[in-house]
Design goal:
The protein is α+β, with helices and mostly antiparallel strands. The protein has a domain of 107 residues: VC0467-like. Helix content is 23%, strand content 29%. It is built from 5 helices and 8 strands. Strands 1, 2, 3, 4, 5, 6, 7 and 8 form an 8-stranded mixed sheet that branches. The two termini are 21 Å apart. The mean pLDDT is 91.
Length: 175
């Protein structure tokens, strides 16, 4: 969760699900912002994937400022297709057309986030930002990523750490 002191407007009050964190850097998907003017139906139509009118209710998330013209799907099982990155035994990140087709047909994962773009950090960058108190961390919790209304995810995640979000200040420090 982005701290209030994080000055980057791309991440203000965001909850980002970190999908991969290695010596080469980190990748994640912002799970509490959507493109209000865009639905999955537009994506499916553009890709020539048949779908029903219910697809117009599937939001497209702002996944982050990196690769902002690429699709990413953060999802639970069933896991299918190539290019699947298992985050936990219950959670994966993919950009598989097979997963998109299954979602469009109503036969895909029960829980998913379709996102344009992702969040990315170079080697040591996320660690540096964490040392600057730019981020709070919490283990993966399905209801925060998929279940809660978007506007409640950040505050709820912060509260799960035992922190009152109203007590967080804009400046950072270390004791």
């Amino acid at each position: 969760m982005a701290m209030p002191s994080l000055a980057d407007p791309n991440f203000e009050h965001t909850v980002t699900c970190i999908s991969e964190h290695t010596a080469e850097g980190a990748v994640g998907i912002v799970v509490n912002r959507v493109y209000p003017e865009l639905s999955a139906k537009v994506i499916f139509d553009e890709l020539g994937i048949p779908c029903d009118d219910g697809a117009s209710k599937i939001p497209v998330h702002y996944g982050g400022p990196v690769h902002d013209n690429e699709l990413f799907i953060l999802h639970t099982g069933p896991f299918m297709g190539e290019g699947l990155l298992m985050i936990t035994p219950e959670l994966a990140l993919s950009n598989s057309r097979l997963v998109l087709e299954a979602i469009a047909a109503g036969k895909g994962p029960q829980d998913f986030v379709i996102a344009l773009g992702c969040a990315g950090w170079g080697p040591g960058q996320l660690e540096s930002e964490m040392l600057q108190n730019a981020w709070l961390t919490l283990p993966y919790m399905p209801d925060i990523v998929f279940g809660l209304p978007l506007d409640e995810r950040w505050e709820n995640a912060v509260r799960r750490l035992g922190i009152d979000p109203d007590m967080l200040i804009e400046t950072a420090g270390n004791a």
